[in-house]
Amino acid sequence: MTAPTDRDTTQRTQISPGPDAPAPHSACVVVIHGEGLGKRADISTDPLVVGRSHEADLYIPHPSVSRQHCAVWHEHGRYRIRDLGSTNRTRVNERVIDVSDLADGDHVTVGESILKFISHASVEARYHEEVHQLASHDSLTDFSNRRHFLELLEKEIARAEHQRRALSLAILDVDHFKRINDRHGHPGGDVVLRQIAALVRSQLRADELVGRIGGEEFAIVYPDADPAAVRIRCEALRETVARSSVSVGDSAMQMTVSIGIAHLGPACPDRSSLMRAADAALYRAKETGRNRICVAGDGD
Ligand SMILES: Nc1nc2c(ncn2[C@@H]2O[C@H](COP(=O)(O)OP(=O)(O)OP(=O)(O)O)[C@@H](O)[C@H]2O)c(=O)[nH]1
Prior knowledge:
Helix content: 25-40%
Bound molecules: guanosine-5'-triphosphate
CATH superfamily of the largest domain: Reverse transcriptase/Diguanylate cyclase domain
Strand content: 25-35%
């Protein structure tokens, strides 16, 4: 065996211009303390409303926060903040304000939460974006995780009620998924789940929200679509999965999904009743043979 030479052991430092420049980014506010920790929202010329109302752009569900607490916006090259008549007032760096300019790094106190203002193209903004993405999304499928999905659903319900629009919820569960794990192990099961998630994604429109709400369970919100149209969309999704083949290594297989649908309305006026009804419909779809759709209210 020959002794190692300098060439073998020396690591050479690569000449580098430094990290990639952060993409130009609008400014944002990030919750850095209290309820809503990690949430962020971008700021544009349209006022961004921070508050406890489901319709607030940055929703902070805490009793110390007013329904519409403050608004932040971009105007003639400056970032501005205005208190919206909140009970506990808005503070910028501990100073109570009615209207104020914002500078990079300013702390905004809203009830018991603290927001940080981060100006555009900041490396820190990218860091917070990544942290938020990690906290709110499922790493296997990149869908919203259960907690984030439920929060989005709550906001969509508030919007649908306010605008008197339809909203439906579908819960989809992969049939006999345990067999895949038993045959191919948990990593093989993950490979299949990722492929089914891709099929689900391929069937979604831009305004439809999806979340992974359980191990092999996904949920989709269909805003502003009538019940008949939602049924057709779900049938197309069910068929797409049933006709596609998924694979683990060399082994290809056909999978199916069962789907339960519930519509926002007098029988399901809020998030929990909607989730319960869609779940019960899914249970019926499983009980009556799988690879099918059941709708809450039909045949209960
Ligand atoms: N690979 C993998 N498996 C998971 C994950 N989460 C849950 N599972 C598995 O999914 C399986 C779900 O099984 P069951 O709830 O019994 O249902 P099923 O076999 O899909 O049958 P039906 O739903 O009744 O059609 C269990 O074996 C879980 O261990 C995950 O993230 N990855």
